[in-house]
Write a structure and sequence with these properties.
Largest sheet of chain B: none
CATH topology of chain B: MetI-like fold
CATH class of chain B: Mainly Alpha
Largest interface: A-B, 21 and 21 residues
Radius of gyration of chain B: 24 Å
Shape of chain A: globular
Number of helices of chain B: 11
Helix content of chain A: 25-40%
Number of domains of chain B: 1
Number of strands of chain A: 11
Largest sheet of chain A: 7 strands, mixed
Distance between the termini of chain A: 17 Å
Helix content of chain B: over 70%
Bound molecules: adenosine-5'-diphosphate, magnesium ion
Order of helices and strands of chain B: HHHHHHHHHHH
Number of helices of chain A: 7
CATH topology of the largest domain in chain A: Rossmann fold
Number of domains of chain A: 2
Oligomer: heterodimer
Radius of gyration of chain A: 18 Å
Strand content of chain B: under 5%
Distance between the termini of chain B: 23 Å
CATH class of the largest domain in chain A: Alpha Beta
CATH architecture of chain B: Orthogonal Bundle
Number of strands of chain B: 0
CATH superfamily of chain B: MetI-like
CATH architecture of the largest domain in chain A: 3-Layer(aba) Sandwich
């Protein structure tokens, strides 16, 4: 493993007390005889924003599903704030590539899914965060792709998760909407201080958003790269492109 | 920005024209008038087909004697009872087999085998079992209603997007919430399709069962009239079945509007 050390706390954020601290040790997952993840070790600080990149099929989604507790690990363990994860991870929310909204519910009722009390008011609050207050009563089927993802983001945030898992959430959006959403995710993350793990196939997106970018290859962590660039980071910031090149070379074996 | 409002207002203006609502009625009304004329001038004998006015007279006659009301209500009762029993069993088993793979393995192939037997072919057997009483007819309706509801409920639950269920789990829904908030609403469009088929089969079964063996009901009214050559009552009975079928269909349509307001089929 190749680790580029972080010059302490260049990443512009106060120490967070809110996000989950993740300790991943020897995490291994095999489907039948097919090994997908082989002994992943990773330490993630509370409130950190990590991006995970790698070729398609390298096990990124599997990694996220393990963290969410949707699937049992074959070996190894995941600790959340020192507690080993068993079953579903109730402090985590996932935002999927497809928004996965329920078409038989209004926008607001989608956001309030699973809230046991005060759903409407909290739902309105979350919709306000993503700038969709005025669409609360609409059916989700009439929204655009970007709006659907914003609803999905509101739904993820409404439960005030300590850990937000993003599985290529912007992959299907057009370039302009994607920039807008990146900005929104970054702002909300800075305000709410959850730990964020973003899977993406877009290296530019990874270095733009994350404190740290992890490359998964052959079932292991091939590179763990700090991006010590202060925020707000503007697109095309020259310091970022250096990291981008480094990552691309690594992924593509150059 | 000028064009859009104009376009919208033109469209709504066109839609609100009464002409649009009248158009579908022109052909049936025309046919009715032709029928009346043909019958009145003796081109069709009353034995073959009585004039529309004669059928109306028969309806009035039988309404006054109370015969029509009695027969319609007894047919309705048989239909409803058979529908409720068959529908509940179909819905229950559909949900059970849809939700539990074990139950499916145990029951589904047997149900599929029975389904291959056309239920109307059982009439002689059913008469042997139950005689020609109401039990026989209701039993046949139960069978007719059961399969479409079962198949569509089962299929509806099975074809729920597993991604939505997974999402529900991540968002903290327990099994019971998953069922009521994701699985059942997701299966509802299919269940309503089954309901519509079932209502069609319900009337069809009842017509056959009442025509073959009954001493009351709309089918009996028709067969009885046939013996006395009362073609007007025969046609009246047929029209009554048609009317009841239409009522059932409209009821499903209303249910769809009420239960599936989100569905693309409900959004113009
Ligand atoms: N439930 C499963 N059963 C068997 N194989 C699976 C399953 N889920 C994922 N895989 C396999 O694991 C590998 C990694 O998948 P995934 O994590 O989805 O990749 P990524 O998200 O990086 O594109 C793929 O080869 C995929 O076919
Ligand atoms: Mg994936």
């Amino acid at each position: 493993m190749n680790r580029v050390e972080s010059p302490t706390s260049l990443t512009s954020r106060p120490e967070s007390r809110y996000g989950t601290h993740l300790s991943i040790r020897n995490l291994t997952k095999t489907f039948g005889k097919k090994p997908v993840l082989q002994g992943i070790d990773l330490e993630i600080e509370p409130g950190e924003f990590i991006a995970v990149v790698g070729r398609s099929g390298c096990g990124k989604s599997t990694f996220l599903r393990l963290l969410a507790g949707l699937e049992p690990a074959t070996d190894g363990q995941i600790e959340l704030d020192g507690q080993p994860l068993k079953g579903l991870n109730r402090s985590a929310r996932i935002m999927f590539q497809d928004a996965r909204l329920l078409p038989w519910r209004s926008v607001l009722d989608n956001v309030a899914l699973g809230l046991r009390r005060d759903g409407q008011r909290r739902g309105q609050w979350a919709l306000q965060q993503v700038g969709l207050s005025d669409r609360a009563q609409d059916w989700t089927t009439i929204l655009s792709g970007g709006q659907r993802q914003r609803v999905a983001l509101a739904r993820a945030l409404v439960g005030q998760p300590q850990l937000l898992l993003l599985d290529e959430p912007l992959g299907a959006l057009d370039a302009l909407t994607r920039l807008e959403m990146q900005q929104l995710i970054q702002t909300l993350w800075q305000e709410q201080q959850f730990t964020a793990i973003l899977i993406t196939h877009d290296v530019e997106e990874a270095v733009h958003l994350a404190d740290r970018v992890v490359v998964i290859k052959d079932g292991g962590i091939d590179l763990d790269l700090w991006v010590p660039v202060s925020r707000p980071r503007s697109i095309g910031y020259p310091a970022l492109s250096e990291f981008k090149v480094k990552l691309l070379n690594r992924i593509l074996d150059r | 920005m000028q064009i859009a409002p104009n376009f919208v207002s033109e469209k709504s203006w066109e839609r609100s024209l009464p002409w649009q609502q009248i158009t579908p009625w022109i052909v049936p009304l025309g046919l009715l008038v032709i029928w009346q004329l043909l019958a009145q001038f003796g081109f069709i004998t009353t034995r073959i087909l009585p004039a529309p006015t004669q059928i109306v007279e028969a309806a009035i006659r039988l309404s006054i004697s109370g015969e029509m009301f009695r027969n319609v209500s007894i047919s309705l009762w048989r239909a409803m009872l058979g529908f409720i029993i068959g529908g509940s069993i179909g819905l229950g088993l559909g949900v059970l087999n849809g939700a539990s793979p074990t139950a499916e393995r145990l029951l589904d192939s047997s149900i599929q085998m029975i389904r291959n037997v056309p239920h109307l072919s059982l009439i002689p057997l059913v008469i042997l079992w139950f005689g020609i009483g109401d039990e026989a007819r209701i039993f046949l309706v139960v069978l007719g209603v059961f399969f479409p509801i079962y198949i569509n409920t089962f299929h509806g639950i099975r074809s729920i997007d597993p991604h939505l269920v997974e999402m529900g789990k991540v968002y903290g829904l327990r099994s019971r919430d998953l069922f009521w908030q994701i699985i059942l609403p997701g299966a509802l469009p299919n269940i309503l399709v089954g309901l519509r088929y079932a209502l069609g089969l319900m009337w069809l079964t009842l017509i056959v069962a009442e025509t073959i063996a009954a001493n009351s009901g709309i089918g009996y009214m028709a067969m009885n009239a046939r013996e006395f050559m009362q073609t007007d009552v025969v046609v009246l009975s047929i029209l009554l079945y048609a009317l009841l079928g239409k009522v059932a269909d409209t009821a499903v349509r209303l249910l769809e509007r009420w239960w599936l307001p989100w569905h693309p089929s409900q959004q113009m």
